[in-house]
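Researcher: Re-running this chain for the archive, since the previous output was lost when a drive failed. Same request as before.
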Amino acid sequence: MIRATGWTFAAIAAAISVVLAVPIGAGLAGVAQIVAFRSWIAVVSLAAAAVVTLVMLIAPRSSRAAFVPLAVVLTAGAVAQCAVLGARSLGDAAPAEKGDKPVTILSFNTFGAVPGSVLAELVEKHHVDVATLPQTSIDVAQEAATLVTQAGRPMQALDATSEDTPHADVVMLVARDLGDYPTPTLIPMGHGGLLATSTTGGPTLAAVHPLSPRGRPDMATWRRETREATDLCAQTPGAIVAGDFNATLDHPGLRDLGPCVDVAREVGRAASGTWPASLPSWLAAPIDHVLVDGRAWRAVSFDVLPATGGSDHRPILATVAARQ
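Model: Regenerated structure tokens:
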């Protein structure tokens, strides 16, 4: 009886491990939220395996064999998660070459908690060309642009908010030496989006913030909007699309990027998480991304920066270079 129960629990654990490792149903409520935290799944699986092993050791000798299948399954599940994370920590970074004109992109969901002076410091410190800023007001962006301009690098602040989206602010900072972007347009997304096209030959830029998958009523919209964000990159030659996607590479919207690439994945940093900023990056969910048209750009570097200014997201910094 005990042995049969042990195999039953092992079978259940195996099914759950497969669902979370592949993952199956990553677009569904419940599964979508859990699979965003692969490191947590690995830690919990290993902890559960340790507990089962400890119970096995103190159980009567005649009952110990019943615990072996469950311990093995839990350990295998943790190993599977670590294998995926390990694969996403491998990449082919392409160092900047002589003659390159790299473009550095900062994406930072400021949560409305980061002042313009802090943004300006980030932009200046990392010589940022484009900053996509979900949940940031145009006033804050303009303050940052003014400070960076006064420091010697002209910067433009872009927005396309409307009366219908007063709490869905998504703005951009763009260096003027990248190009002129006079008429940005609103991308209709749950938390806002911004599309900017240059009149002087600069790349098409998009800042996105799809609806977050908070529960079952939001899932269909979340799936559609994350797909629209990646399609925007795939269907726009030379595009740079960045922001808080509210999705990881495991979720349906980011499974197929077409000709586009995720810069973090290209350089082996796709396991580094950005939300919540209160967690170490290795435990957080990697839901902030920079996507670029891989036909036009090659990835040079990607970093998750330290928690900054009270935001619940960590900033990300990507550098790409135009293909010759």
